[in-house]
Amino acid sequence: MNDTERAVLTSIVAGHYLEALATVENLEAGEDTDLLRNIALSLSEASNYAKALCEGRLAAAPPTHNNPYCITLKKLQKMLWPSEMWNDHTHKSAVLEHGSRERYFDRDIETGLYSRRAFLWNTRALIEDAPDEYGIMFSIGLDNLRYVNDEHGYESGDMYIAKVVEILRLCAGDSVLLARPAGDEFAVYAHGFADEDSALDFAQETRKRLLNTTLEIEGETIRLRTSQGAAVYPSDAISSDVLLNYATNAMFSVQNFNRGTFLRFNPESYRAKAAMMSRQERLDELLEDRRIHFAFQPIVNLHDGSIFGYEALMRSTRSDFPSPLDILQLAEVQYKLPQLEYITFLVIFDWVAQHLGLLSHKKIFFNIISASYLTKEKLCKIHSDYANIVSHMVIEITETVSNEKEIARCINQFRQDFSTLIAIDDFGVARSNLYRIVDFRPEIIKLDRFFVSDIDKAAPDKKKLIVDFIEFCHSRNILIVAEGVETAEELECIIDMGFDLCQGFYLGRPEFQLQEIKDEHVLMIRRLAAATDKAKEAS
To answer: 420, 373 in Cβ contact below 8 A?
Structure first.
């Protein structure tokens, strides 16, 4: 015996089987080496098997059938495991048919009920044996288990679970299967009913039995509180996994909207939820792949017809998000507005950095979702040339942005750090009101199209109100933008009223490339501006 072989045997005697296996690898191939490897491997398997049983994991799968060290351990496991498992003739026939001992151990460790896999397999067997009869699958969610765990501890939670299992076992039988797919979820399938109503009555009776059960925990009487969803075979589905999926979906709907009640699966509701989940997945893909870009609409100087800047309007490169509002609303519902804002900053910063020469003195107006990224620390992580980029931008505060005081603080600090212009978007609607002028001290205000549409036909009082507001802003060196200008008459009217800037379809639609406005529009603006100035001088 050489030193390496002696080391292997020493490790085996000491119970260090993995160490022995590692040492065996250093031996030359041969019969003695194979024998040592098999001994170390068999003892390692037996050790892990025994450890699992000692820890109470009675569903542990035994090692291979030819392991001689596990014969007694398998007998012990059979003695310790719940007797009904070994008497389950359906389960035994499955084992005999498929030759798999593993199915004997496909049980929840704590309760002895079927695991999800075994439950679905046996449900399928019941259906195949009597495909012309009705069945009921119902999913049970424990509504107050968390409360019991939090208030009385996990041992009390185990008592609660044991009571649920005790009640469910009252309805168990050859045609009734019980499972625990998850920690606070149970499932029941019953087969052999003559019609739908009989199947649903069975589920309702089980529900009543649960709801009428109480247990005493540390002086408190606790009633079993459950939410249940059901699906009927063959009316709702014909396969076991789909039935369980539908029943669980109905149960989650109950927990979300009407906790403690019973609901049969509703295909229309399910399809709507599935569609919503699909949209959620598409939003995740949009964020992960940065599937957005920007269209640019010109903002025109009404004194000389030059382009003051462009508003960057977010667009999705995916056809399933035709409107940016769709993206924003879904991101808000999903609590993913911060991720969306981060992506928009990344994309627009990259674009501005690549087009600095083309922009020259022109500004890019950019809507923010919140002010969380308006700090040096965060901007420098978005782009290394952040200071130069933001100097070419106008930060727009939209009407949907809330938390006014905190945003005002961030914006004013941002203005000090970068001398960036601040604009209030859609002024006059929602939160965009006079308070924002005081809090944000903007350099630019964009008057909502509500006030601009058909302004040439507006009553004199409305026009005077707008003119007075323009004069108020001018007294504070604030530029006023008319949004949504769509006709030559509207353009002529806003120039006469004293607006400084405008944007709208009449002068230019959003395009993915920067566009100049038509020469005829430039000449028209200059002519109207000159006439307005001459009229003011004359007055």
So the answer is: no
- Nearest in space to 254 (alpha carbons), one of 207, 193, 202: 207
Other CB atoms within 10 Å distance of the CB of residue 533: 11
- What phi-psi label fits residue 85: left (phi over 0), alpha (psi between -120 and 50 degrees) or beta? alpha
Whether the CB-CB separation of 73 and 49 falls below 8 Å is answered with yes
Q: Is 78 helix (H, G, I), strand (E, B) or coil?
A: helix
Give the three-class secondary structure for 190: strand
User: What letter represents residue 325's amino acid?
Assistant: L
**In angstroms, rounded to a whole number, what is the distance separating the alpha carbons of residues 437 and 343?**
29
Q: Please state, in angstroms and rounded to a whole number, the distance separating the CA atoms of residues 20 and 6.
A: 10
Q: pLDDT, tens digit, for every residue of 113-152?
A: 988 888 998 899 899 999 999 999 999 999 888 888 888 8
Dihedral (CA of 487, 492, 493, 495) sign:
positive
What is the torsional sign of CA 428, 434, 435, 441? positive
pTM above 0.85, yes or no: no
Report the pLDDT averaged over residues 477-503.
94
Total residue count of the chain as it appears in this document: 539
